Amino acid sequence: MIIQPRVRGFICLTSHPEGTAEHVKQQIAYVKSKGKIENGPKKVLVIGASTGFGLASRITAAFGSDASTIGVFFEKPAAPGKPGTAGWYNSAAFEQEANQAGLYAKSINGDAFSDEVKKQAIELIKQDLGQVDLVVYSLASPRRTHPKTGVAHSSVLKPINQPFTNKTVDFHAGVISDISIQPVESDDDIENTIAVMGGEDWKFWIEELKAANVLADGLKTVAYSYIGPELTYPIYRNGTIGKAKDDLEATVPVLNDLLADLNGISYVSVNKALVTQSSSAIPVVPLYISLLYKVMKEKGIHEGTIEQIQRLFAERLYTGAAPALDDKGRIRVDDLEMREDVQAEVAKLWEQATTENLEEISDIAGYRNEFFHLFGFNFSNVDYEADTNEVVEVPSIKG
Ligand code: NAI
User: Fold this and answer.
1) Which of 49, 132, 237, 322 is the most buried (most CB within 10 A)?
2) Is residue 111 a known part of a binding site?
3) Which residue's CA is minimally distant from atom 30 of ligand 1?
4) How do the domains of the chain map onto residue ranges?
5) Cα–Cα dist 220/199, whole Å
């Protein structure tokens, strides 16, 4: 079928199999161009492996360190006349490339919050790898059914205590407007967001993997967090999602206790703001990202997900020494984003930004381009007028 983008707000309903494969190949090429990561991971479980930072982690482990990878994700498979989701096609392309390179790669498509998928992952590790030496936790989800209580929790993106008004952008139309977001009405919103995006499920994974004896001695596990600039604090770091990130970060010492007898260690890495399916859903953040991209590109310090994760592995997690941590015990690869000169320039541009000057003072064009890339569109070497086979299988899930 001929697949064109069908955009509804901050999501694209269609994805292109050849375009997503091109996106995966470009990320693999970047990792290979950086050379091998010495003493990198060898057997890796990535939870949330199909898009964004999780996909970049899987690619970096496989192609930077020849690792065997098991990826867990929740994606819609392709069916005749119905393209699959981008994460489905990404995973198909990743596995094909890994197989061609002689690397083990298998995937599980299902709800990572469930006990069932945890059991499946454990069985697969036991059967094929024995144990894993790295577990990457990179889920981003709007909801979670709690495996013990059965309660369905939905996360919300709201400020706490006070309403928040600021600029936001419709990045397709290029229109800036003011947005006012009302604060949470009760603590339930905070509790639900923590239940979805906090650290409990990460802990459940590590507990169950450990109990099944599938964690290697010296295991590392890492989850991803975000801080960002003060201007997004009310909606991000001091809002409901920030409370969930506080909870995720507070899980690190708990996991370190749990992993002590395996000489294992857990980390949270604070990453840079980037265009992903999750971040485009947060009000205010896309305008910040498009100004940030402009400033960082001009300074020659821009990074995408793959550059961030390659640097995390090569210069933080696998240097042979313990990584430097901030005063709250976190790894920082948002160091370039948070540089004073970068933040000062973004803050100045933020004040100036209007619909009229947006194309000129921001990298809204780059934002849009990356948004379309997430779904496999806007690649110059893919013919979007041509018929393409939409029914692409993920090799390890086939049949
Ligand atoms: P993403 O939306 O690109 O990826 C989310 C992944 O989770 C996908 O593989 C998806 O299939 C999987 N997933 C979602 N629900 C699932 C479920 N129930 N079961 C199994 N898999 C499921 O998100 P992104 O942006 O890569 O986020 C990953 C982590 O990085 C999150 O913790 C996020 O807060 C964090 N982060 C994101 C930043 C950004 O700017 N995008 C910045 C810093 C941290």
Assistant:
1) 49
2) yes
3) 224
4) 7-147+189-282+302-334+375-397
5) 16
